[in-house]
């Protein structure tokens, strides 16, 4: 999995590097602030791709003595850094576009801009689709963030392309900085979405509600072997999912039987819901405050005590 993720990140780096050179060259030749904005946007995409490359390499390192819980959060760190960089770029684009509106200068040789924006739309569509595919298959936060950047780049490049075509056909040079401002707003939206998702894992936000509900439902399928569960906690670090919970079991259960039930539940969580790490704390119930325990302890003693009935 690590090889596929790093290969995808490397491909993104190569693609972005090529587009940056082309956009920057055409932007300076034509004097188009919208093309230069796109060059800056692609530069940030390159930085994001580089960060994603090192992020996925770092996150896939196995746990060690210094990091006993692994290195998964490096992907979230990379996503957060990418989002901050995109915010900075958007502010710069807005500043340059406003200056161009005030000065009223017009871009030249717009046909070159039309060509490069068309190439950018096609290239980034292909690369972003590839990155999304690998991100889904490997559950990589860093690659997902990189793919989101490129998807935004496709939208903004298409917008710039339309603006250049209209400016060429109508002679309204004011369309160039206006399109640049729209590009900046889309970039800010993309940055916020990435920051919201990446930073949440850094502060141990729980898994999405639908995943938590699925976990609870699976645990409830095992209630015939236990009394109840509580203190269910979930979190995610990079592509790794963590679950810990307390299981209340009849106090007459042997340690061997309780351990077997925990192993079975842990296996189900990993196999069926793709949970990477499961921690279970077992608690004995008391007859005086738990009617369910009385039923389990008094009505099914042979079933609970017989190791052969282990799930």
Automatic annotation (TrEMBL):
State the compartments where it is located: Cell membrane
User: Where do the Cation efflux protein transmembrane domain residues begin and end?
Assistant: 12-202
Q: Name one GO biological process term.
A: intracellular zinc ion homeostasis
Q: Which residues cross the membrane?
A: 20-40, 77-98, 110-127
Say if the entry is tagged with keyword Nucleotide-binding: no
Q: How does it sit in the membrane?
A: Multi-pass membrane protein
Q: Note the InterPro entries from the entry.
A: Cation_efflux, Cation_efflux_CTD, Cation_efflux_CTD_sf, Cation_efflux_TM, Cation_efflux_TMD_sf, CDF_Transporter
Q: Which GO terms describe its molecular function?
A: cadmium ion transmembrane transporter activity; ferrous iron transmembrane transporter activity; zinc efflux antiporter activity
The cellular component terms of Gene Ontology attached to this UniProt record, alphabetical and capped at eight, are: plasma membrane
* A Pfam family reported for this protein in Swiss-Prot or TrEMBL: Cation_efflux
Cation efflux protein cytoplasmic domain residues: 207-285
- PANTHER family cross-referenced by the UniProt entry: MITOCHONDRIAL METAL TRANSPORTER 1-RELATED
Protein name, per record: Cation efflux family protein
Instruction: Tell me which species this is from.
Output: Dehalococcoides mccartyi (strain ATCC BAA-2266 / KCTC 15142 / 195)
Lineage per the UniProt record: Bacteria, Bacillati, Chloroflexota, Dehalococcoidia, Dehalococcoidales
């Amino acid at each position: 999995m690590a090889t596929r993720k790093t290969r995808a990140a490397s491909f993104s780096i190569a693609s972005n590097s090529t587009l940056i050179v082309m956009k920057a060259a055409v932007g300076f030749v034509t004097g188009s602030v919208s093309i230069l904005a796109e060059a800056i946007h692609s530069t940030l995409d390159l930085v994001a791709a580089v960060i994603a490359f090192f992020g996925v390499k770092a996150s896939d390192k196995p746990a060690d003595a210094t990091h006993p819980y692994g290195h998964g959060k490096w992907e979230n760190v990379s996503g957060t850094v990418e989002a901050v960089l995109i915010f900075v770029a958007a502010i710069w684009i807005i500043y340059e576009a406003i200056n161009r509106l005030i000065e009223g200068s017009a871009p030249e040789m717009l046909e070159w801009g039309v060509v490069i924006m068309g190439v950018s739309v096609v290239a980034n569509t292909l690369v972003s689709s590839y990155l999304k595919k690998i991100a889904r298959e490997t559950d990589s936060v860093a690659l997902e963030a990189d793919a989101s950047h490129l998807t935004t780049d496709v939208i903004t490049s298409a917008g710039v392309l339309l603006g250049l075509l209209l400016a060429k056909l109508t002679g309204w040079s004011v369309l160039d900085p206006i399109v640049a401002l729209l590009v900046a707003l889309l970039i800010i939206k993309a940055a916020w979405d990435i920051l919201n998702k990446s930073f949440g894992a850094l502060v141990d936000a729980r898994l999405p509600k639908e995943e938590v509900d699925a976990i609870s439902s699976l645990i409830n399928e095992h209630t015939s072997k236990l009394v109840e569960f509580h203190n269910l906690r979930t979190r995610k670090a990079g592509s790794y999912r963590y679950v810990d919970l307390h299981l209340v079991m009849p106090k007459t259960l042997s340690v061997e039987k309780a351990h077997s039930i925990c192993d079975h539940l842990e296996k189900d969580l990993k196999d069926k819901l793709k949970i990477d790490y499961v921690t279970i704390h077992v608690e004995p119930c008391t007859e005086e405050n738990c009617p369910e325990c009385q039923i389990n302890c008094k009505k099914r003693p042979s079933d609970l005590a017989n190791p052969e009935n282990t799930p």
